Amino acid sequence: MQEIVLTGLRPAEHLSAMLEARTARVGILGLGYVGLPTAVEFARVGFPVVGFEVDAARAEAVNAGRSHVCDVPDEVLAPLVGDGRLRATV
Fold first, then answer.
1. CB 37 within 8 A of CB 44
2. Which of 8, 30, 34, 80 is the S-S candidate for 86 at Cβ 3.0 to 4.6 Å?
């Protein structure tokens, strides 16, 4: 992933530029019925996403491309994990 160096910008402008370039890293707290679909959608549009999950088994399953949420099929999750766009951590 390419890093963008933006000097002389105010923080809001810097963030705006990173969002537009899809280089801002997104963190999601909890990978449950709201968090996992949200993480997937950010990853689908190109953002690198880290999901923070207190359940180690759930984080491990997500990192293996297995979803526990009916709204997120494994067929959608697995490629995002495989491409490195989405990962979970405890």
1. no
2. 80
